Amino acid sequence: MIMDGISIADNVKRIRDAIGEAAMASGRVPGDISLVAASKTKPAHMVREAIAAGVDAVGENRVQEMAEKNAQGAYSGAPLHFIGHLQSNKVNKIVGVCDLIESVGSVGLVGAIASRAVSLGTIQSILLEVNIGSEPQKSGIPPEQVESVLDAASRMGGVSILGLMAIPPIFEKNERNCNFFDIMYKLFIDMSGKKYDNSSMRVLSMGMSDSYREAIHSGANMVRIGSALFGNR
User: What proportion of the chain, given as a percentage, has pLDDT over 90?
Assistant: First the structure.
């Protein structure tokens, strides 16, 4: 699809180039960073274009929208992530369907996912979502409670905890976001030192269209890009 003379494939290449520059500047290689196409409100054909252009995964925010596009074969050829706010009563609709649930923001939600996964005889990969800005209007685990949630989750079957995810507060200047990204990276490193059988702590998902370069500089190895890839919603 062409947007103002620029295709999705063009946008993927531009973003890949920027990811590569940020990765190299932070002492890593471009292949260390996973690009998740955040496809909220975008139709199945645009998702397929993004996959054909080489994104690493597709992330959806809404359970119903995900189900509709999945029925259309939108995600064929790429892992499917759930990246939006997840309610416990929707868990049954995504466990075993998504390759990774990034937005697991409470110990109760971990438990609901674990129970469903066990009932299906599967292991569901998840990230723990951290409310790094301690914003009351946002979901997520307070930073000071992440270790206790990780410890509780370690005693549950059916889940594999791959790392952490965060959406920092929005500021006009990215310097403020960088502070939160740095705090998240330190928390990620601290949690990586905890040894649990069902936790590998290898993914740090943070950074979106307006902040992914700064997030990568701070240590992110997974970024979620929507408008910069697909155009404005």
Answer: 86
**Domain boundaries, position 58:** 2-228
Q: Does any domain span residue 156?
A: yes
Alpha helices for 58-203 (secondary structure H): 63-71, 107-120, 146-153, 174-192
Among 66, 65, 55, 150, residue whose Cα is nearest residue 110: 150
DSSP at 133:
T
Report the CATH number that the domain containing residue 174 is assigned in CATH.
3.20.20.10
The number of domains in the chain is 1
Q: What pairs with residue 37 in β-bridges? A: 58, 225
**Is 0.85 topped by the overall pTM?**
yes
Task: Tell me whether strands 2-3 and 57-60 are parallel, antiparallel or unpaired.
Answer: unpaired
Instruction: State the alpha helices, DSSP H only, in 76-192.
Output: 107-120, 146-153, 174-192
- Kindly state whether residue 221 falls inside one of the protein's structural domains: yes
Task: Give the tens place of pLDDT for each residue, 160-192.
Answer: 999 999 998 876 555 556 689 999 999 999 999
**End-to-end Cα separation, the chain, in angstroms:** 14
Report if residue 233 sits inside a domain.
Answer: no
Q: 51: closest CA among 29, 23, 80?
A: 80
Question: Does any domain span residue 79?
Answer: yes
The residue to which tokens 């359970």 are assigned: 63
